[in-house]
Amino acid sequence: MLYDRIDHVVLPLRSVDEAAARFERLGLTLFPGVRHEGRGTRNRGFFVGEPHNEFYVELLGIEDEAAARAAGLARYADWAAEERGLSSVVLRVNDMTATTEALAERGLALRPEAVHAADGRKIGEVAPLDDAERAVVDLRVIQYPEDAAERHGRHAAVGLFGHAFPLKRLDHLAALAPDLEGATRYWADVLGIPPTGEVVSPTTVIRQFGIGDAIVELLGPATPDSPIAQRPPGLITMAAFEVTDIDAAVAAARAAGFNPPDAATGVLPGTRVSTIPAAQLGGMSLQLLQYV
Predict the structure, then answer these.
(1) Which residues pair with 209 in a beta bridge?
(2) Residues 102, 77 share a domain
(3) Does residue 183 contact residue 177 with C-beta atoms inside 8 Å?
(4) CA–CA separation, 220 vs 242, rounded Å?
(5) Domain that holds residue 27
(6) What CATH number should be reported for the domain holding residue 143?
(7) Residue 275 in contact with residue 288, Cβ under 8 Å?
(8) Average model confidence (pLDDT) for the chain?
(9) Over the stretch 152-187, which tens digit does the pLDDT of each residue have?
């Protein structure tokens, strides 16, 4: 597969510090962030995982809207202004040139661009896939100048995994796909990510696409009259994280002033789930998931 893992999701915000304070109140350690040279943006966020599955949520503040739009980041500027929640999913690759060539053969023209911090340090190369309509998700790929172990070690050395709140790893993201078969063909044939599983309920077909050890779920209608058939396609503003003890995690979230419900049986077999609402975390629901 061209992609190593789901690297991060992007949550565009008008006030990155306000959202960051909420995640810190939950008990997560956030990285201080950087200003991106020539892009009008500044980020913060938090990491979870091990060297092989490190993932982060990027809280992306739009500090100069005109500069962001001039840099091709109009989507992020619009998302932040409209408070629409999660905008994009970014996949990590080890070889941007090989990825670009492989996707070009399938009709996707990637235009990688180097992203630098304000001090000139190269953060990585990023390329949007620019086909969110067919993918039902705004997808981007990123390559870093360091390998996974080195990058994880650098983050661990400054305490970025020292969370008081017990998130283990990203489990899954989800998107609505009213034309599930069309989206499945696109993910398999163009992106080169075949489906790895499926869960069916009376109203919903959840088609799973494994990338590393996390999953992107495409949710389609199980019947013509399913509510999903009438909803617009797109990324659901939710990230599901595995926890070891969901009851303890719910209690910790409540102690920090959040209002997740009692854990209940999840849609995915063998799981219990609870969710901190998006309104309490700057626009991203945080689902807690325990395998039982």
Answers:
(1) 216
(2) yes
(3) yes
(4) 24
(5) 5-157
(6) 3.10.180.10
(7) yes
(8) 96
(9) 999 999 999 999 999 999 999 999 999 999 999 999
Q: Is the pTM of this model over 0.85?
A: yes
What CA–CA distance (Å, rounded) separates 98 from 270?
38
Choose one of 103, 129, 157: the last residue of a domain: 157
Beta strand 234-242 with 197-200: parallel, antiparallel or unpaired? unpaired
Q: Which residues contact 162 (CB under 8 A, 6 or more apart)?
A: 29
Whether pLDDT at 118 is above 90: no
User: Are residues 189 and 112 part of one domain?
Assistant: no
pLDDT score, position 24: 98
Residue 197 included in any domain: yes
pLDDT of residue 26: 98
Residues 146, 30, single domain; the answer is yes
DSSP-derived 3-state class of residue 55: strand
Q: Give bridge partners of residue 215 from the DSSP assignment.
A: 172, 210
Closest CA to 12 of 95, 88, 92: 88
Tell me whether residue 193 is in a domain: yes
Bridge partner residues of 116 (DSSP): 122
- Tokens read off for 57: 């949520």
Q: What is the DSSP letter of 280?
A: G
Output phi, psi for 184, to 5 deg. Answer: -65, -45
- For the residues 243-248, what does the mean pLDDT come to? 98
Per residue in 66-108, pLDDT tens? 999 999 999 999 999 999 999 999 999 999 999 999 999 999 9
Count CB neighbours of 17 within 10 A: 12
pLDDT computed for residue 57 by the predictor: 98
Total structural domains within the chain = 2
